Amino acid sequence: MSFVANGITTPSNITITSGTFFPTISLDDIRNDARIDGSVTDSRLRQIVLEEVIDVNRLLSRLVMTADTLAELAKSVVDDKPDTVVLYFSAVANGVAAKTYEKYRNYDATNSGHKRADELTPSIDEYRRNKHWAIQQLLGENHTIVELI
Known about the structure:
Elements: E1 15-16, E2 25-26, H1 27-33, H2 42-59, E3 77-78, E4 81-82, H3 83-104, H4 111-139
Antiparallel strand pairs: 1-2, 3-4
Helix pairs in contact: 2-3, 3-4
C-alpha cells in the first residue's frame, strides 16, 4: 500500500516582511496566486518566497530612497490597493512560481513526467518574463529594450 498526497493545503497564515518600505507578502496569497498545491510544504515555499523577496527588493533598491513606502509611489489604485503594491506582489509571485515549477517538475522520472516537464518549460519562462515586466513597470521602464549592434 502506498500513500499519495492529494495536494490539499490548510491556511498557513505565514507572512514575510522585508523592512518598512516593501509590503508584507502572505504565503497563502502566493500559494493561491501561483496555484502551488500541498506537495510543496510551507517551509519549502517559505524559503522560495524569501529568496524571491530578496531578489525583487535588490532589483528595486533604487526606489527605496524616493519615498517612505512603495505604496507612496503609486500612480493609481487597483482593487483598493496601490498599483505599486499589486506590481510588487506580481513580481514576487511570478518569481516564486517559476522557481517552484522548475524545482518540482523533475520529481517524476516516468515518460509522462518527462512530457510534463517539457510542457512546463514555456510556463516557467512566462513566469520569469512577467516578474521582470512587473519590476520594469515599478522602475518606470519599458518592457522591451532594443539596441543596434
